[in-house]
Task: structure prediction
Amino acid sequence: MSDEGEVILDQTGRVLGPRAQTTRQRLLDATTGLLDEKSLRDLRVADIARQVGTSPAAFYQYFKDVEDAVLCLAGQASNEMPSILEHLDGDWRGEAGLERARRIASAFIDHWDQHRAVLRIRNTASDEGDARFQAVRSEAMQPVLMGLAAQVKRNRGDKPATGEHPLAAAAGLAAILERLAAYRRELERFGVTRDDLVETSARIVHRTVTG
Amino acid sequence: MSDEGEVILDQTGRVLGPRAQTTRQRLLDATTGLLDEKSLRDLRVADIARQVGTSPAAFYQYFKDVEDAVLCLAGQASNEMPSILEHLDGDWRGEAGLERARRIASAFIDHWDQHRAVLRIRNTASDEGDARFQAVRSEAMQPVLMGLAAQVKRNRGDKPATGEHPLAAAAGLAAILERLAAYRRELERFGVTRDDLVETSARIVHRTVTG
DNA sequence: TACCTTCCTGACACTCCGTCAGATCCGGAG
DNA sequence: CTCCGGATCTGACGGAGTGTCAGGAAGGTA
Result:
């Protein structure tokens, strides 16, 4: 990622002045925009540069390659990981727990609606084994995963008799939350509304957490 | 896909003789092998050709591009979609239903263990919007999705009062099954065994289907 | 051997990548 | 206002990989 910390550097390690920061940000914005139209695979450095009205060479001043820029965007998006953790801790039993689950599901959907293209790439690149994207994704999801696993464990009174593994259950729940949020558009075409998604995933999560 | 029906054609539409079929198959095998080492993005036609001991130009005789070859493999893998549908129909209540769910989960894991690389690409390409991969994936998953949705609907006595949407629930369950199967390796490093995965996903599926 | 079909290849034009030396820009010192 | 020096950008290029084509090799048949 080319965006760690506060001081932003270019590819040779030098601090960026204000003019450069503007250019860099415009390159990032252009990348975001273009990703709504074409896949990462089809996204050319030349496209991004043209959109910004600069030369391809300028792009390489700030980013190693297109993936590097997207990685940066993915980092930003992941950092906006919504207030899910707040909802995690507390009592999961009964209607209050279900409401908790609804809030989490809803926050996930909002998160994905706002960063669909970039989050999709984050996950696919991560699935394909790219270590940098894996790191960004983990950083965002790990707390959710651990939080869910802890709640599963707690609310079952630690009885492993059910045969369910807390971490596996948490991973499964995370899968539902992500997938339904990611596929919102597609499911809508089959008559599944946003509320349906929230309610359905919330109930599965709630049932799984409380056993 | 370059593999529809029985008679196999080359890129110009001519029927393949026995020698050509062998070459084509070797190209496919080499592709499978290389996909275990590198990502689709890094897989060059030249690599595949060299592996087979032929020229890059030969590759283009049988496939439009690398994706086309992988698509063909994805189609083959998807067709081997295991005997999941057999387990879907029937009574889901009680221990028998849970056992049903275990069989499905187990079959999913086997399926993914056998075709991990190709199925991953099928899904990521499909996620990225590639219509051809979407078609292959749908063809494989649609029956599972519909079957699960039908069971959800049936076993709830059609009471929509629970607020869960059958199709959304089915999509969520499919997400769990796929993700846990796809991430088996990674989860194992955290001490989650195959049995844990089967039992956990089976129970979530069973609970969700029976309400 | 001569021939014909099937299959494969060398060679090429093209696209895009990533780098570098040098041009351009711009604010501040004089 | 003019000039200077660092900050920023660019044109031009070597390289890798793609996809195509005319023609060459391989193998069967008579």
Remarks:
- Confidence is low (pLDDT under 50) at residues 1-5 of chain B.
- Chain B has two domains: 18-76, 81-210.
